[in-house]
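Q: What structure does this chain adopt?
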Amino acid sequence: MITIHPSVGRANIKIGPIRSFSLPSRFTCPGATKWCRENCYAARFEHIRPSCRLAYARNLMLTWNTRRFVRVMLKNIPNDLPVFRIHVSGDYYDRRYVAAWASIASKRPNTQFFAYTRSWIVPELRTALEALRALPNCHVFASVDPEMPDPPAGWRIAYLNIDPRANGVPCLHQQGKAASCYECRYCFRPGKGNVIFKVH
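A:
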């Protein structure tokens, strides 16, 4: 049997020293709109960095065995890790995968998990995503673009600045007011609201 190890991101310019887990863009994005597919920053990055595209594909294969995925990720997320980003690229693609992250997060209560998803718009995934975001250490934003309807009540929303509905705090990193997500912390602090991103 071939052993697949996860590719866990350790840092990047935007999020700072925050570990992350990603999947291939587009193939794992059931909630993507035409606008999203045409403007996907992750797809552009994967085109420039084929090594990342390969790593994300291996990550996807790892998720197909839910039990093993949970076990392996728990080994890569220490009990004292303060914060973890789910999906710099990719999205929640089925219910079992969403449930796997709920299992991981519930076993790492000291870690704040945060993610932005368009999969909230997929009816078959909504219940699983509601259960994930109900965990006290999970901060799951409903990502929207101008082609999408309003998310269900109660969700934190990640708007684009081109959306006339946008209301919330502009991303401080994009405003040049915070060096990274790690320094800002707005998106993974309980009790905070919506965020507005510039198109990038």
